[in-house]
Design goal:
Layout: H1 2-14, H2 19-22, H3 49-63, E1 93-94, H4 95-98, E2 117-118, E3 151-157, H5 159-167, H6 173-176, E4 189-197, E5 209-217, E6 223-241, E7 250-256, E8 263-266, E9 269-272, E10 297-302, E11 305-310, H7 330-342, E12 351-359, E13 372-373, H8 392-396, H9 421-429
Parallel strand pairs: 2-5
Antiparallel strand pairs: 1-3, 3-4, 4-6, 5-6, 6-7, 7-12, 8-9, 10-11, 12-13
Length: 430
Amino acid sequence: MKLLTFSLTCMLFFSSFNSIAQDQPKKSGLLWNWSCQFPTSVPAASASQQEFDLYSWQMFIALNWPAQAGQRGQPDCTQVIGDAGPVVWQTYKDVEEIFLPDAANPGPWNSPLTTEQLSSINIAALKNTNVVQAVDQAVGGWLIDQRGNPTYYEISANETSYNYIVSNNFYNADVVSKANNINFPNFATEVKASWRMLTSSDDSSRYLTMQAQVAEFNAQGQPTGGSNSATLGLVGLHIITKAAGYPQWIWSTFEQVDNVPPKVQQNGQWVNNPQQGVFYSFFDASIPAAALNQSPCNWQQQGTQLVCVPKTGITFQTPNPLDRVTPLAANTQQINSAVQLTLSDTLYKYYQLVTTQRPLMPDNPSNPMGQPTPALSANVTMESYIQPNSSCMNCHSMATPVNSAMKSDFSYLFKFAQAPASSKTSHAKE
C-alpha cells in the first residue's frame, strides 16, 4: 500500500506542471514535464512529508532553470533545465549587492550581473556575532575538503525579499537595528549555497559549476587580501521561502551526492555504504568515527568577536572529514530516486534533497514556532559540526538584525547591514 501511495503521489506531481513545461522535448524517452516557474501553491500543513519533499524539488527545479538574459530572477522557459548559462537563483541579489558600504542605497533590482566574488568561508559567522566577520564564526569553523581546499559560501535573496529590504531602508544598520516589526511578505525567498573548488582530478560533469574570484587565506585561516580565479562546484543549497500560510517559512536543503557516502541499516545500526569508484569530497574512510565532524577551531574572544584559532597540528589546508549524522529518511530517498530518474540527462541527477523542514502547526497561537517537523535538519556542508542538534527553524527563530535584540522574521540577512558614514563618524567621536 505504501508503494502504491507513493506511485500515485509521484504521478500526480509529474503531471501537474504547466503547458510550457509539457511542450519541452522528450529526453531518454521521458516527457520533460518540469515547470520552469516557482511553485505558487504549497501543501497543506496536514500533508505528508513526501508532499513537502516534492514541493522542495519543485522549488529546486525552478530555481535551477536557466535564467532569462537581462532579467534577474526570471526563468527562460524556452530552454530546459540543464541548458548552459546562469540559473535563476544565481541571478538573485547576494548580500554584497544588497548591503553596501556606508549603507548606500543598492538601487534597482534589475541591475547587470557582475563577476562572482566569494570570500565567506563559513556562513555561521553571522549567527552569534554582532559584527559580521566571514572568517570568524561562532558555531563550528571553516570546512576544508579532501583535496585540501576551502568551501566557500554565498547568501542571496529574491526580488520579493530585496524590494522589502530596500523599500524599508533595512539595508541601513541604523534603521534596521531600531525596527521592531520586521515581517517579510509571502514568496520572500533566500538561498544559501556552498561551493568547493574543483581540480583536474574531479569530475566536473557531476556538479553545477561556475567561475569565480575566491579570496585567499593564510595557514591560520586569515585573509591575505588576495584572490584567484577558480572553477567551483555546488555542494550544498538551502532554499527558504515564506510560503502563504507558513509564517515560520519552509526550509529545504539539498546536497551534491558525492559529499559523504550514503548510509544503510545493518543489524539495527546505520553504517556508511561508499559506492565503488566515487570520490567523496568530505569523507575519509580511514578516519575513526570519533574524529569525524570535528571543528578545526579553538575559539578565543578578541574584543567583541570570537576568533578561530586553529587547533594544534591543523592549518587551513588540513582536511576536515565529515559524516552524515542523521540518515536521509526512506520516503525522502524514494522521492529523490524518482526525481533523479527524470533528470537522468542532466547534472542535477547528482543532487539530492536531504530534508524539508516545516511547521506542523503553523497557525497555533500557543506555539509560535509551529512545531518544526522533522525536528532536525542539517546540511553536512553548512551545519558540518553541529549536526546532532541542528534545526534550521530553531536557529533562525533567534535571528536579529545587527546591534539589535529585536527578532528579524527568521532571517539573518540583516546581520550584514552597514552603518552610514555619518553614523560611523559620530561613534568615532564619542
